[in-house]
Amino acid sequence: MGVRVQHEAFDPGAELNALHQTNTGVGAVVGFVGYVRDFNDGLEVRGMLLEHYPGMTEKALDKIVLEAAQRWPLLKLEILHRVGALEPGEPIVFVGVASAHRQAAFQACDFVMDYLKTRAPFWKKENTEDGPRWVQGRESDEQAAQRWE
Amino acid sequence: MNCKVLYFARYRELLGVAEEVVKGEFANVETLLEFLILRGDREVLGEKGLMCARNQEMCGLNEPLLDGDEVAFFPTVTGG
Description:
The structure holds 2 protein chains of 2 kinds.
Chain A: E1 2-6, H1 12-18, E2 28-35, E3 39-40, E4 43-52, H2 56-71, E5 74-82, E6 84-86, E7 91-99, H3 102-119, E8 122-128, E9 131-134, H4 139-146
Parallel strand pairs in A: 1-5
Antiparallel strand pairs in A: 2-7, 3-4, 4-6, 4-8, 5-7, 8-9
Helix pairs in contact in A: 2-3, 3-4
Chain B: E1 2-7, H1 9-15, E2 19-23, H2 29-45, E3 51-54, E4 57-59, E5 70-74
Parallel strand pairs in B: 1-5
Antiparallel strand pairs in B: 1-2, 3-4, 3-5
């Protein structure tokens, strides 16, 4: 189980492969990769700046990992989230889950993303064709997270 | 009591400050927030989607405060 918050780019394929390499009890690996889109809310996006709350970010992600591990029988769970300047096409976030059977891995990955989007202190500022703007939180994200209550 | 107050993202930009020490008697986060709003930050901190954390953990406005606590106010989070 691990949490990483970093400026550096990462290789989603390598992250996914690492989830089963050291454990032959793993029967299922589910990975989610979030990317920077070049378009959002009607405007072209040329890049983005990801701000976070150092200290709290790691604690919030640790808490989400712990909660997922309590709900499902997981063999491995990795969260990697980037901060700083990002360009369209670059990966922002990786969540990878390994378990013996697929249901736990699918559900835990879904859960982690829903909680991460609503409970981890990250904020996106887009550089659009009309200038910079802060991304607004979505009600649908909060509703998605509430499914797990 | 002293509270270290942090602001993030849009709030930090609009208030023009990332952190400050606020002195006063604050029973909970809501009392502190009311103080900041009355001080003149209503435009920013009075918004409906405001989120808060005490000592780096998400909390509600009724969260009690102690001397030396770190309190953060920020807009709805948008990571992932």
